[in-house]
Amino acid sequence: MNVIGQVTVLPELPGSIGRLSELAYNLYWSWTPHAQALYQALDAEIWERFQHNPVRTLLEVPQARLDELAADADYLERYRQVLADFDAYLNKQDTWAKQNAAKMAPVAYFSMEYGFHESLPIYSGGLGVLAGDHCKSASDLGLPFTAVGMLFHQGYFRQLLNKDGWQEEAYDELDLTTLPIRPARTSSGDEARVQVRIAERDVHVRVWELAVGRIRVLLLDTNVPENREDDRKLTARLYGGNQELRLQQYALLGVAGIRALRALNIPAGVYHMNEGHAALLGLERVREFVEGGLDFRAAVEAVASSTLFTTHTPVPAGNDAFAYELVDRFLAKWPGRLHVSRDELYALARHDQFWDGHWVPTFSMTVFALNMSRAANGVSELHGEVSRDMWKFLYPGAEVAEVPIGHVTNGAHNLTFTSQAMRDLLSTVLPQGWEERLEDEAMWQAAEGLSDAQLADVQRDMKRGMVQFVRRRMREQKIRNGASAAEVAATDTLLSEDALTIGFARRFATYKRATLLFRDRERLSRIVNDPQRPVQFVFAGKAHPADNPGKAFIQELYRMSQEPEFQGRIVILENYDMNVARWLVQGVDIWLNNPRRPLEASGTSGMKASFNGAPNFSILDGWWREGYDTTNGWPIGEEREYADLNVQDDADAYSLYSTLEEQIVPLYYGQADAEGRGGWAGTVRRAIQTVSPRFSMQRQVIDYVQGYYLPLTTRGAAVAAGGGQRAREIAGWKTWVRQQWPHTSLSASADLPTTARPGQTVEVRASVNPAGIRPEDLRVEAVLKRGDHVTRVPLAHAQGGQYSAQVTLPDSGLYAVGVRMLPVIDGLSSELEAGLIKWA
Ligand SMILES: *Cc1c(COP(=O)(O)O)cnc(C)c1O
């Protein structure tokens, strides 16, 4: 038809269930299945059709149905209970934050993507789900916290597999009136609008807000009539475009994001850049300080002292870098605005890379983020190491171990991913209020009290539900692709409710090696088709639209799933999203992850599976290298890297098959020992007990508070105090020592015997020309290196630039001994901050 306009007829909520609308606009429901059930009960078909979206369900449900339930005693009782819990949650006074972080400054958290729920498709995968989970736990803990992101009105993409198993992408224009968002309003009641100058245009940005429990998320949107047509599309798709679009999106997130906070008067004292995408927030904050009277360098000190940067991947595609000319096109006005030369500004982002056969300087978002922050971290212990190695070129003269990038291992939001049935079961053994102390390892010991039978019952039901879900989805897919009636009918027998079921779902980035399982097809076939002890696999995952190798992996999986020997036992589901993720982590018996070590910075889906009693079976990479304790799941391969990727793939595949055949399958199908312990359920219990607390998002956010947010609160305030007095001093001092540094000199000597005993001391001496740098501002030190282990011993200043110390050789081993000096003053975030190290 020819549409001339649109009108939404809003049903009227009867008074007795009047707060269903209020609840729909707070994502509290996204981790509260009982709350979701209230909307599902309105109309199960609508609920399914609209991705479990409460706002949409309320819009679509017939008035008569609302009136009917408004008089249903059972429904009303459930409604009252959910709202009582909701109120208690929102009004809780003695939060963790109040008791443990009362002095913490409000945090502003910036992320390109957020995965809160399948009905709000503004995420692509792990990074977004992590950010969404981080917000949820920030709310649970009662932190002063505001998140900033983008409202992609076509979201990421919906994945369709065609009849050849090739991924196709569909983009649906979201109807914003059906999302749980509202225009953010300023104190005067107006809708918040901000502007950003990109190239020669003023781009207008509308700001939406989303309530996630106690906290707010601001979402930026350029799809407003004031903007040119192409600017309206700047916030259309997540990771959708070319380099030009990306850079403009990053400018929006960073610059408009800060302006949105200011327009809404939202206080912030600590800024958290979740991935390099957010780094340009540094530009806008520097501009604010410059406007307040600081020079560029002092302003950078002030900004960086209150900023944390989290890097999430060593994979090059995850570390954007732009040609200088491209940056010139979009950010040409910034050097002038900041009273700095283009060269000096770009130097803070410079990463020389080998592009098209020669070395070119590029504007790296990761480098800029590192320079715009004074605290940085990777997302697992191993990823911290990998990151220090990857970015050590920014800290010339430093040992890898000293590169100031720490780590906080990722977690997942337990309640978002744990099935209601498992939560009910856990409530029978864990103390009351366990949902509020998820990080408490001692508390989780009580999960020992879960019996084999109880666990088996819950897991059987969850698996049954998952199998039904897979069949429904595969049926829809077959029908859409024009399959024959026989093929459609065959979906009713996909998978068995009794077979050992292994889940594998994630983005199909090639390093995740989705097809590793098929490396020895005959062996796999024997495992899968064992008549007594069958094994089946459920795969799901999206490839980035431009990633043809990733799509080829999907197609290969699809083809394998159609082979007679695997049919019905290996399935690949389309459109992996948070809904599919929940079904799988709750319904499978084991979670499989076989990335190419060390490229999986953390991984989180295996944590979600363990929360539900599906032990993890994975390469010792990312979180699993820390989580695996020999009793709570299984490793694949060894703790090492390989020079030859083919050899690595062979070794890992071999290990995967052997562990399955020799350990996992016999344990799953075997009997428990005499006490009924130690068998399969023993591993299940261990997975729940050990992974739930240590890899809870709550533990993760507490680590951020203690390791970063609290220290940055103090340091940021000190550096910015008195109109940035300390920032000026630090910046002035750095400028000065950098000038003097080429004129300094250092020579050293040591009386080193060829062999020595443990505990023996040696004298180390140095002679310094400090070029005017005060002795108290100069650290001269001996460095002892044994393997990766570095010990630093300061040399004492005698006079006339002479330094010495008696240095103890603590233990046996081969030591390398060196002497170096570096300028330091009080109040730096690390001794490497000045970036000057001179070795003798
Ligand atoms: C948890 C999750 C991911 C991340 O999984 P990894 O283990 O990090 O690969 C990706 N997508 C969805 C929908 C998830 O829920």
UniProtKB/TrEMBL annotation:
Its EC number is 2.4.1.1. GO terms for molecular function: glycogen phosphorylase activity; pyridoxal phosphate binding. It catalyses: [(1->4)-alpha-D-glucosyl](n) + phosphate = [(1->4)-alpha-D-glucosyl](n-1) + alpha-D-glucose 1-phosphate. The modification N6-(pyridoxal phosphate)lysine is found at K608. The keyword Ribonucleoprotein does not apply. Residues 13-120 form the DUF3417 domain. SUPFAM superfamilies: UDP-Glycosyltransferase/glycogen phosphorylase. It comes from the Bacteria. Pfam families: DUF3417, Phosphorylase. GO terms for biological process: carbohydrate metabolic process. Keywords: Allosteric enzyme, Glycosyltransferase, Pyridoxal phosphate, Transferase. InterPro entries: Agluc_phsphrylas, Glyco_trans_35, Glycogen/Maltodextrin_Phosph, Glycogen_phosphorylase_DUF3417. Belongs to the glycogen phosphorylase family. This is Starch phosphorylase. It comes from Deinococcus budaensis.
